[in-house]
Design goal:
By secondary structure, the protein is an alpha/beta fold. Helices cover 43% and strands 15% of the residues. The N and C termini lie close together (10 Å). 43% of the residues are buried.
């Protein structure tokens, strides 16, 4: 069975003390997790070591960085390289989030470089893809997302692709209060898996977890996660509220 994942993306929120308290409260809740269910906390860079220490003795919990640079090292003030993440024990990293693409003009080519550097360090990329409202309204979402996948991932060998986690973000549903219907989410997840199957083969594509990343809440998580190709969620605002995120964890298949 594919790994079912609840990934918390804190974005640029919470102080160190608030983040530590939230982690403590979530872990102390002792939410039952099956062997194939996994929780990932994507925290701001200054909190990575703290968060990794918090989950060190817990089963089914890990920590992710929210981004990395697309070059191995060099004169890039303020940036963080995959090698640095590896050196402090980080096992996952989000790349290509819609906010990074929009506000920092990250390209599919840069994301391909990030993929290579992360995999070279043994860090699993959580690769984000998804369409804005104009593309959805034009009915071009499938080809738009397929281009994102092709330009950032299709240079990989199947054994490399097997290490990916994909997060589908309908950009029009992030932070807007709108949510794609469970049917819309499943439809795009199925399309993404079909694209992966055509490129990397059935076995590889069927092993890759595809997460939904558009305004997931405790109230709608179970319905969305019920989709055959929906393997959990990449959760923004709701991950900052203990009760909400626990409800999302409990909704995993």
């Amino acid at each position: 069975m594919r790994k079912q994942i609840a990934a918390a993306n804190w974005k640029m929120n919470l102080t160190y003390q608030q983040g530590e308290k939230l982690l403590d409260e979530i872990l102390k809740a002792k939410t039952p997790l099956d062997f194939h269910q996994h929780v990932i906390f994507a925290v701001p860079f200054p909190y990575l070591i703290m968060a990794n220490s918090e989950v060190a003795n817990e089963s089914n919990y890990s920590v992710a960085a929210q981004n990395c640079h697309h070059k191995k090292s060099g004169a890039f003030t303020g940036e963080v390289a995959p090698e640095m993440l590896y050196s402090i024990g980080i096992k996952y990293c989000i790349i290509g989030h819609s906010e990074r693409r929009e506000y920092f003009n990250e390209t599919n080519a840069q994301l391909a470089e990030k993929i290579d550097l992360l995999l070279g360090q043994g860090i699993q990329p959580i690769f984000c893809c998804g369409e804005p409202l104009s593309i959805r309204e034009a009915g071009s979402q499938n080809s738009y997302v397929e281009t994102q996948l092709a330009e950032s991932l299709f240079h990989l060998q199947p054994e490399q692709a097997e290490k990916l986690i994909i997060a589908y973000e309908p950009i029009w549903a992030i932070g807007t209060g709108k949510t794609a219907s469970a049917e819309q989410a499943q439809e795009m997840h199925a399309h993404i898996r079909a694209v992966l199957k055509e490129k990397f083969g059935n076995d590889i594509a069927d092993s890759i977890s595809i997460l939904y990343g558009g305004s997931v809440k405790g109230a709608n998580a179970r319905e969305i996660f019920n989709g055959e190709d929906v393997d959990g969620g990449l959760v923004g605002g709701a991950s900052l509220v203990k009760e909400e995120f626990i409800a999302i964890m409990e909704a995993l298949k």
